[in-house]
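Hello forum,

I keep getting stuck at the same step: I have a sequence, I want structure tokens, and every attempt I make locally crashes halfway through. Rather than fight my setup again tonight, could one of you with a working pipeline run this one for me? It's a single chain of 253 residues.
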Amino acid sequence: MLPVASLAFVGGLITGSFVGVVADRVPRGVSIVGPRSLCDSCGTTIAAYDNVPVLSWLMLRGRCRSCGAEIPARYPLSELVVGAAFAATAVALWDDPAQLALGLAFVSILAAVTLTDLERHLIPNAILAVGAVIGVGIVVATDPSSLPERAISAAAAGGFLLIFALAYPRGMGMGDVKLAAVMGLYLGPEVAAAILVAVAAGAVVGVAMIALQGKEARGRAIPFGPFLALGGVVALLAGAQILDAYLSAFAGG
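Reply #2:
Ran it on my machine without issues. Output:
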């Protein structure tokens, strides 16, 4: 299993680097194909040997080779997180190539929207649309019989969050609603576990912020997309177990 996890981790590092480009360029309406990456401070084109995931950042000590400006640590951190998520997905789904392909695509989409939501409080429609097309394409090619169930799950997840978005627009946006729908497409019925985890995680963070910051925290908006992404990854890896445990504990089995 170690070779599978190692290979997936390296693939995740590379994908994480690309996801960073997507998250940076798509909200600005810039092509993800070109031009090559530039230093944000001096505009110098970043050479290929200075763009190796994680390793280049460490070798450069987190600074641009040309001007010495600091390179944000979020770049190597996001690459490492995607690498770890790829490795975990590969270990969990390695015996089902179709689900593995779907899972890796799902993790990549979640990583991209997490970055955009954290940095810009925005979940771009373009990323969600591409993610939906990729998901449908994989399902149609590998398991077309599950498409109706996935479509129902997408509608249910999006509709559930739409109610909250309409009732509490400051706490949840339409981007979160669309993300939940895309998650339903990828996860099917197990999207319920993802939303359960997301709501629980959001509540814990909200209570912690109120405890630490008092009344100031009550008026501060917290992006919900990252919590949905966390729930999505957890449900991808253990959604069935979470639903079984929940039903056993609160619904009498």
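The chain has ten helices and no strands. If your local run keeps crashing, start a new thread with the error log.
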